[in-house]
Write a structure and sequence with these properties.
4-stranded antiparallel sheet, 4 strands, 29% helix, 2 helices, single chain, alpha+beta
């Protein structure tokens, strides 16, 4: 019986829109534009320990659509989740928070972004699937290389 209490636990406690902002600064004239806008997407994700065994993971995304120097629309969204993670080795928790949790959150974020842009009167922007594992590995490699002392330098 006691051994069962040491089983790994991973549950989704809550999924939610943490922040949502939409700007259409050129409305209504912008709707007369026939040129397709250039769409720029920037995204990051972060995790915070809430208490023992509970973590919040948030994906922040900014989508900017412009025609020449005019902003067509700007959407900023933070989509979060509270996850219970217990009896998982500390070394693996970072991967769960950086890969598994964002993979769960992303489809909901995609839906919020697409719906918001549609409701603003524009064709929906469908975000391409993200490879959070590759992003996580690249971030780890970058951190590792930034923490290396320069070649030939001595540390005291």
């Amino acid at each position: 019986m006691g051994e069962q209490n040491n089983q790994p636990v991973f549950t989704i406690e809550k999924l939610y829109v943490k922040d949502l902002s939409l700007e259409v600064p050129g409305a209504p004239q912008i709707f007369r534009e026939r040129e397709a806008p250039q769409v720029d997407v920037s995204m990051n994700n972060a995790a915070n320990r809430i208490d023992d065994g509970h973590f919040e993971v948030v994906i922040n995304i900014t989508i900017t659509a412009k025609i020449k120097d005019k902003t067509v629309f700007l959407v900023e969204t933070a989509y979060g989740g509270v996850f219970q993670i217990r009896n998982v080795p500390e070394a693996e928790i970072e991967t769960v928070l950086g890969v598994t949790c964002p993979n769960i959150l992303f489809p909901y974020l995609r839906e919020v972004v697409s719906e918001t842009i549609s409701r603003a009167g524009f064709p929906p922007v469908i975000l391409h699937p993200m490879n959070f594992e590759a992003i996580f590995k690249a971030t780890k490699e970058k951190e590792k290389s930034e923490n290396q002392p320069p070649a030939g330098s001595a540390t005291h």
